[in-house]
């Protein structure tokens, strides 16, 4: 029986989410990744790409290429919300799927052809996601993950491509070697130096030549170029940690600012824990100095999602970490050892504290995460300023 592997990728996911929140962004060159020159582009619209902007590019360079672009720092809560929505739609439809990133999925449809017709099933799932989320999404369907992923890239924006069994090599042949998933900038340059531009050239090369240049990766590149990939779809499981970081526009030694940012980040993460019905048992604080030396310290605690149990510990960890009078470039917090929260009554020390958090969370649900914050965090920017994204 031939395998049938579906790949789905939400198109310019962060930009698409922002456009759902603000329709005025439609058709505009939108760049996500921060507003300061020190940031990098996390995602950009197709309109911005026409100016030469791409993911991973310094914001400073993007502004030179596209000065009329709309630059947004990004909104982690919105992206998580829509990623979860799409994940739930897929989970309700498909028995086995892999979530490889916040906006990308592999789905194993092997054996389902006799019941539904895999092409029809894939197309209907895509339409369902578009209708229920409002987000554009593209798909590729083939015998394996590599060919399906490349097909999705060729299908974009907002379309679908099916590569039937037996035509994988001919489909891949005319494409640039840069389309091969494991070929990054360095490998691409090496291939170009060899005069290799199209996948067909790799298909016709003896694998020994590639092994001589790229070592053990040479064979993998050759196999992918020939549409050979037996890697399985790894069933999705919920993440075991959640984290947030902030890189400052200017390195700082302002203790009041640093503590305020940590408290605000801690509040946002504990709120997210409660919303997802999760508990954490391990807190990690991260500091990166202006000389790029990075230090972390963690502590284990009884399972909780309570601000009053977590935030004092965050501040204690920070105090024990910040031992050098050197400016801070980045701070971060990570919650790990996550488990389902069970009964909310068990999360907090007493019913009054539980009622307080329930009231605070209702306010945040209705008016946004900034609706209720500790006094020390009032002057600190919101969560959208803290996170750095990839996508």
Topology:
Blueprint: E1 5-10, H1 13-21, E2 30-32, E3 43-44, H2 46-49, H3 59-65, E4 70-72, H4 76-93, E5 97-101, E6 104-108, H5 118-133, E7 137-142, H6 145-155, E8 160-162, H7 168-172, H8 185-193, H9 199-204, H10 207-214, H11 216-225, E9 241-252, H12 255-275, E10 278-289, E11 294-304, H13 307-321, E12 328-336, E13 339-340, H14 351-367
Parallel strand pairs: 2-4, 7-8
Antiparallel strand pairs: 1-6, 1-7, 2-3, 5-6, 9-12, 10-11, 10-12, 10-13
Helix pairs in contact: 4-5, 10-11, 12-13
Catalytic activity: DNA(n) + a 2'-deoxyribonucleoside 5'-triphosphate = DNA(n+1) + diphosphate
Site (Substrate discrimination): 14
Binding site for Mg(2+): 9, 103
Describe this structure in words.
The protein has 391 residues and is of the alpha+beta class. It folds into 3 domains: 1-165, Reverse transcriptase/Diguanylate cyclase domain (Alpha-Beta Plaits, 2-Layer Sandwich), CATH 3.30.70; 169-225, 5' to 3' exonuclease, C-terminal subdomain (DNA polymerase, domain 1), CATH 1.10.150.20; 241-385, Dna Ligase, domain 1 (2-Layer Sandwich). Helices cover 40% and strands 20% of the residues. It contains 14 helices and 13 strands. It has helices at residues 13-21, 46-49, 59-65, 76-93, 118-133, 145-155, 168-172, 185-193, 199-204, 207-214, 216-225, 255-275, 307-321, 351-367, and strands at residues 5-10, 30-32, 43-44, 70-72, 97-101, 104-108, 137-142, 160-162, 241-252, 278-289, 294-304, 328-336, 339-340. The strands form 3 sheets. It has a 5-stranded mixed sheet. Helix 4 (76-93) packs antiparallel against helix 5 (118-133), helix 10 (207-214) packs across helix 11 (216-225) and helix 12 (255-275) runs antiparallel to helix 13. It starts with a strand and ends in a 24-residue tail after the last helix.
């Amino acid at each position: 029986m031939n395998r049938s592997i579906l790949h789905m990728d939400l198109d310019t996911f962060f930009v698409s989410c922002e456009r759902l929140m603000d329709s005025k962004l439609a058709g505009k060159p939108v760049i996500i990744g921060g507003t300061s020159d020190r940031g990098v582009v996390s995602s950009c619209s197709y309109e911005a790409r026409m100016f030469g902007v791409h993911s991973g590019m310094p914001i400073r360079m993007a502004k030179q290429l596209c000065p009329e672009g709309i630059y947004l720092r990004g909104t982690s809560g919105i992206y998580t919300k829509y990623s979860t929505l799409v994940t739930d739609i897929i989970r309700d439809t498909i028995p086995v799927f892999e979530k490889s990133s916040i906006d990308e999925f592999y789905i194993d449809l092997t054996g389902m052809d006799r019941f539904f017709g895999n092409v029809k099933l894939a197309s209907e799932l895509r339409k369902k996601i578009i209708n229920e989320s409002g987000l554009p999404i593209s798909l590729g369907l083939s015998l394996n993950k590599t060919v399906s992923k490349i097909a999705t890239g060729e299908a974009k924006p907002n379309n679908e491509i099916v590569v039937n069994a037996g035509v994988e090599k001919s489909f891949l042949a005319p494409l640039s070697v840069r389309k091969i998933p494991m070929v990054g900038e360095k490998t691409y340059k090496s291939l170009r130096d060899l005069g290799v531009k199209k996948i067909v050239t790799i298909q016709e090369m003896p694998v020994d030549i590639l092994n001589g240049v790229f070592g053990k990766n040479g064979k993998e590149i050759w196999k992918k170029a020939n549409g050979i990939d037996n890697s399985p779809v790894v069933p999705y499981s919920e993440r075991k940690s959640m984290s947030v970081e902030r890189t400052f526009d200017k390195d700082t030694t302002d203790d009041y600012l640093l503590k305020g940012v940590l408290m605000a980040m801690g509040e946002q993460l504990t709120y997210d824990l409660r919303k997802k019905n999760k508990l954490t048992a391990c807190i990690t604080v991260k500091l990166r100095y202006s000389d790029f030396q990075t230090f972390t310290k963690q502590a284990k605690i009884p399972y909780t999602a309570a601000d009053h149990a977590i935030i004092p510990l965050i501040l204690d960890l920070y105090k024990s970490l910040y031992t050098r009078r050197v400016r801070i470039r980045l701070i971060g917090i990570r919650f790990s050892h996550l488990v389902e929260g069970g009964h909310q009554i068990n999360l907090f020390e007493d019913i009054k504290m539980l009622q307080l958090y329930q009231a605070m969370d209702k306010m945040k649900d209705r008016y946004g995460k900034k609706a209720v914050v500790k006094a020390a965090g009032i002057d600190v920017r919101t969560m959208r300023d803290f996170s750095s994204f990839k996508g």
